[in-house]
Write a structure and sequence with these properties.
By secondary structure, the protein is mostly helical. The protein has 7 helices and no strands. Helix 2 packs across helix 3 and helix 3 runs parallel beside helix 7.
């Protein structure tokens, strides 16, 4: 399983200059980490969780400050799809609050700074 099922949403939520494969890679990395940490569940597997946190899903429910912080964060990882260094850096940015949040909305409500180092 991967985040590729969110391809349409990824395309529809890109910021200027973003590569959709970078966003997909971020969703896949976070989705795998989330599934490893807590396991998938019936309502929200790790990839759906990741798509929500990375601002592909649940966008209307996010505060503007979260969206802006994540936009800057996503820019830091331009080229991640083809860079093992960026992939490793991204993986190491996850806080326990992100990986163990009850669901994507709870993670978002905790605020960006509680989720990523």
């Amino acid at each position: 399983m991967s985040g590729s099922r969110f391809w349409t949403e990824i395309i529809n939520t890109l910021y200027p200059g973003e590569d959709p494969t970078d966003i997909l890679t971020m969703i896949d990395i976070l989705g795998r980490a989330r599934n490893t940490a807590v396991g998938p569940n019936e309502l929200e597997d790790g990839y759906k969780f990741a798509a929500g946190v990375i601002c592909v899903l649940l966008r209307p429910f996010k505060p503007p400050s979260y969206i802006q912080a994540l936009r800057i964060f996503r820019q830091r990882f331009q080229g991640i799809a083809n860079s093992t260094h960026l992939q490793s850096t991204f993986s190491n940015s996850f806080s326990p609050g992100l990986l163990y949040a009850p669901n994507a909305l709870a993670a978002i409500n905790a605020g960006f700074n509680a989720l990523f180092y």
